[in-house]
Write a structure and sequence with these properties.
Strand content: 5-15%
Shape: elongated
Structural class: alpha+beta
Number of domains: 2
Helix content: 55-70%
């Protein structure tokens, strides 16, 4: 809940920042300060494409666009400085923070050094302008503090990275690491000639009463403990949605994964029934095939789960990559 509240506040502040920058851009256009208008517009685009705004999937395209806008802002500010745009002088103080905060280290550090060198050269050209002395010292200090801040931030992030691998409610591995972990398992499976299957479990909430959502959220820690106790030590599992879990089963063929999915499915139903919830569970199963990668394998198992739920839920559905139509599913009813 704390993470959701943090994301909620951050997204609202991001939208307020976008609106403020758009208003500033419009004001600068009216007053004829076109360079500042472009800088404000580009800054709003940086916020719009940043992770501060929630999206179902933050793809590589969004990241590249965000980095391109950061580079564009640096170019606009440097150009405005050399053109003598006095309104952009104080924008320069934010540039090191933006570059170091949004660009990868291998790109941000060299770009910051180059940009600051160009800016200082441009300020040095303002001979006789008293503003030059008011900007150079604060700019050097701001850049130095930004460098120290992000050095400490990266160091701290590396220390607490292992703590962020787990979901706070279920103790499942974080979805952030799913694609990378699955890629490593696929590489190992192909290298050693082992089977690999993935299972996605999902609660059929569309078949339950609307009032059960709160009870299900309260039961997530118990669901997490149950799954942890039923999986092998080298199996990994991830919470991919509020009521969905993806499990990686190294060394297990599709048939074995289907049996394991059925056991987990029935166990979850029994757990929910013991707490007075009449909620069914479905499962999708997909095995590694030639040409599969982390993305296609996730899409296959998600499609298998969706197919099971579209057929009424309370079943296990196996996905076949050899046809667009899933094979006949195995329907089982929970043990009474």
């Amino acid at each position: 809940m704390a993470q959701k509240a943090e994301r909620f506040v951050l997204s609202r502040l991001a939208w307020l920042g976008i609106l403020a920058l758009l208003a500033l851009s419009a004001f600068c256009l009216v007053t004829g300060d076109y360079t500042a208008a472009v800088a404000a517009l580009v800054s709003s685009g940086i916020i719009l494409t940043s992770p501060a705004l929630p999206r179902p999937h933050i793809g590589r395209g969004w990241q590249l666009l965000n980095q391109l806008l950061v580079l564009t802002l640096a170019l606009v500010l440097v150009t405005g400085l050399w053109l003598g745009s006095s309104s952009l002088h104080y924008w320069l103080f934010t540039l090191p923070l933006i570059i170091l905060g949004l660009l990868p280290v291998r790109t941000g550090v060299p770009l910051t050094i180059i940009t600051m060198a160009v800016i200082l050269a441009g300020l040095g050209a303002l001979a006789g302008n008293p503003v030059r002395h008011q900007i150079i010292a604060p700019l050097v200090l701001t850049t130095s503090l930004a460098g120290v801040f992000f050095l400490l931030w990266h160091y701290k992030s590396r220390q607490i990275a292992p703590l962020r691998r787990s979901d706070e409610l279920t103790q499942a591995a974080s979805r952030t690491y799913l694609t990378a972990d699955l890629y490593k398992e696929i590489q190992r499976s192909e290298r050693e000639g082992l089977d690999l299957s993935v299972v996605m479990l999902g609660l059929d909430t569309h078949l339950s009463e609307p009032d059960t959502d709160t009870d299900l959220q309260a039961l997530l820690p118990r669901i997490g403990r149950y799954l942890h106790s039923r999986l092998r030590e080298f199996d990994t599992w991830y919470r991919v949605a509020d009521l969905q879990f993806l499990i990686i089963l190294p060394g297990m063929a599709t048939a074995g994964a289907s049996k394991r999915a059925e056991q987990l499915r029935l166990g979850l139903i029994s757990l929910l029934e013991s707490h007075g919830l009449q909620v069914t569970v479905s499962a999708g199963v997909a095995g590694l095939n030639i040409g599969d990668n982390a993305d296609t394998l996730q899409q296959a198992v998600a499609s298998a789960l969706q197919s099971a739920q579209k057929k009424g839920g309370n079943r296990v559905q196996t996905w076949s990559t050899w046809s667009h139509t899933p094979p006949p599913d195995t329907e089982r009813s929970p043990a009474t």
